[in-house]
Amino acid sequence: MSLKGPRAVQNKLGTVIEPVRRALFGRIVPRSYYSKSDITPFFRANGYPPNTQEYKQLLDNNFANWKFKIHGLVENPLELSLTDLHAMKKQMQITEHSCIQGWTAIGEWGGVSMNYMISLCRPLPQARYVVFYSYQYTDGTQFYEAIYIELAKHHQTILAYGMNGEPLSVPYGAPLRLRVETQLGYKMVKWIKSVEFVSDYKNIGMGQGGHREDHMYYGIGAGI
Fold first, then answer.
1. What is the DSSP letter of 191?
2. pLDDT tens, 7-53?
3. How does pLDDT run across 72-101, given as a tens digit for each residue?
4. What pTM value is reported for the model?
5. Which of 217, 147, 128, 160 is nearest to 187 (CA)?
6. Residues sharing a CB contact under 8 Å with residue 189, sequence separation 6 or more, in sequence order
7. Distance (Å, rounded) from C-alpha 13 to C-alpha 7?
8. Which domains does the chain have, with CATH numbers?
9. What does the angle CA 221 – CA 223 – CA 224 come to, to the nearest 5 degrees?
10. What is the spatial distance between Cα 160 and Cα 167, in angstroms, rounded to a whole number?
């Protein structure tokens, strides 16, 4: 059945499993804190950087002209540069990254709390999900991932522009990437272009809640 109709199976299982998973584990607030001595010497970088002309031009100018939009179901849409982000309160955290491929690594991340961003843009009551869009295109389609707005408010969910005391480098998502420490790595969008607050993700991509969900039949929940 799953081979003949994988999308139908994905949707049906998601309808049953996801509400149960959220009911059982959604209220748990995991915390992971490490010291600098725990930082992994070699932190693997997955994925290929964007190869679009737009991204290459931004990179050539060291992202001086880069801005990203926060839009959608919000009272106060934002358009922010790296300078704007650096002027905000910086949050530092040393956490363990868990990849769906089975490897883990510990790194230090610096950036701006998503909860603070939420306080600035003021989502409307009907906003249930936050969608992060990347400059990366995979198989001809834009990479994106959606998370529940509750995950975006988690105290360790940040928009990171620094790693291990240095500006974020291209392999790790420069100029900006998502860190949502309660999820597997594929949910942590790199090379962020924009952020959108939505009531539903069914009209985005193939309607499954992310690029991996669309093309590899993953579930929208990737909790660890």
1. S
2. 565 555 556 565 654 555 555 555 567 999 999 999 999 989 999 99
3. 999 999 999 999 999 999 999 999 999 999
4. 0.88
5. 147
6. 132, 133, 134, 143, 144, 145, 173, 177, 178
7. 10
8. 31-216 (3.90.420.10)
9. 155
10. 9
